[in-house]
Every structure is written in C-alpha cells, then in structure tokens.
Amino acid sequence: MDIIERNNIHVTGNLDAPSCIVFNAGFGLDQTSFKEVIPAFENDYQIVTFDNVSVGKSDSNAFSPKRYETINGFAADLAEIITALELNNIIYVGHSVSGITGMLTYTHYPELFQKMVLVGSSPRYLNDPATSYIGGFDVPTLNSLFEAMEANYYAWAAGFSKLAMRNEDRPELAEEFAYNLGKIREDMAIIIARAIFYLDHRAELPKLKIPTLILQTENDVAVPPVVGEYIHRHISDSRLVKVHTEGHFPQISAPQEVIAAIQSFI
Questions:
Q1: Are 43 and 14 spatial neighbours (Cβ–Cβ below 8 Å)?
Q2: Of the N and C termini of the chain, which has fewer Cβ atoms inside 10 Å?
Q3: pTM above 0.85?
Q4: Residue range 184-226, pLDDT digits in tens
Q5: Catalytic residue positions?
Q6: pLDDT digit string, tens, across residues 98-119
Q7: 245 vs 254: CA distance, rounded Å
Q8: Is residue 23 a contact partner of residue 47, using CB atoms and an 8 Å limit?
Q9: What would the DSSP string read from start to end of 98-154?
Q10: How far apart are CA 118 and CA 150, in angstroms?
Q11: HSE (CB half, 13 Å, CA atoms) of 62?
C-alpha cells in the first residue's frame, strides 16, 4: 500500500531546512485543523502534514479494526510515515490523542526527534481511583458516551462537538467539527473512540527524554487541567503553558497563542 496515498501526506515549507515540523491532528480532525498555525513556520522549517486513517482524504480502505483497536496502530502509521519520508530532526506537534501516538513513536525512534509539543493530550482519560489519578471520566460516563454513539452517532457528534469545542460565541467552530465527525464511518469512529478513551500510557511519560511543551486550555471537557499538570510532573524536561481559550482545540480557537507558545519553545 502506498503510504503517501494512505495518509494523504504533504511535505511543504522550506525543503532545505535542517529541521522539520510534523503536525498530527487528534480524533475527528484532519490536517486542515492546523491551517492557521502552519504559515508561521513555513519559512524556517520543512512541514509535514497528513490525515490519520478514517479522516480527511486518507484511504478508508486501509482501516483495519484489529490494527486500530488500540492507538498503537496509529503510532505504527506515524513510524511508517517517518521512515518513508526519511525524516529526522523532528519537532513533533501532536494534538489530543495524536500527542500520545507521537510519544509512543518516539520510544522506538528517539534519535529522530528533537522536541515534542503535546496539545491537549492525555495519557489516560479514565479515572484510576487505585492511584488517585484523575483523567476526567469514570466508567458510567464512558458507558453512556458509547451508548449514545451507538444509538445515534450523528446526534452524538452534534452534541459532543459543542461540549468539546466550547467557544459558544463562535458556533461555526463546533458546527465544523460536527461536520468532520459526521464524515467518519460510524463503525470506524466507535472503534477509534474506544481505543482512545480506554488507553493508558502513563508509564511511557518518563521515557520522553527530549524537551516537551505541554499546551493546556481552559474548560476542556476531554482533558482537565489536572491532566496537564500530571504530564508536566512525569516528563522531566517539560514546560506547561496555559492557552487562554476554552475547549479542546486551541489550534482552531486560538491559533495565534499556539503559534506564540511553539515559537518561544523551538
């Protein structure tokens, strides 16, 4: 299978630059979610963007329930992209779950990465009372979430989009996210959502030995502030920056703040 077509890969920016920035969007979004951020870096860096299988212009025929029943499948895809493009000196910008897939890929290819940017990422969404870990969700809440997805996926997408995007004064943002969610095949979306909401990669955090920027927003239904603080405590060389916007998608709702944070970091 052609990886370029599978993931709709684009390489732009300064192709002679010594470093590249790889942008990877989270669940329900494609590479266009970074469209307001990328121009600020095009002159100085090679830019790599792509769509995860199931979204955007990726090849949906590449979807395998077995491969993507955990996010390791997406980490494997990322590793294949990096290898196929022969990338190195990577500054990786991963939004939401894609921050964690970047971290997992780093553990196998640490020599290829320079820095890591985690935008609204979480190593575990489910609370863990045994260790007093707060991820933001309990089992009944997740059960209700998946029941709603299975009962009426499109109604769920509309409701979840408003909760996740916030920014009620700009309803078009939530509407666009709902539209993007609605384009994902329902069976794929449920499999991927289960993989995300039941993941647990807390043990990998201390293995991240490169400078790491953690971007945390206000009033994020998916990732409460305590999660960003948890990540910060468990990655030795990390910086936690609060982005002054609500919701789970700062690259969309506050791109200039995201640009400023990344520029000061790299």
A1: yes
A2: N
A3: yes
A4: 999 999 999 999 999 999 999 999 999 999 999 989 999 999 9
A5: 96, 220, 248
A6: 999 999 999 999 999 999 999 9
A7: 6
A8: yes
A9: HHHHHHHHHHH-GGGEEEEEEES--S--B-BGGGTB--SB-HHHHHHHHHHHHH-HH
A10: 30
A11: 19
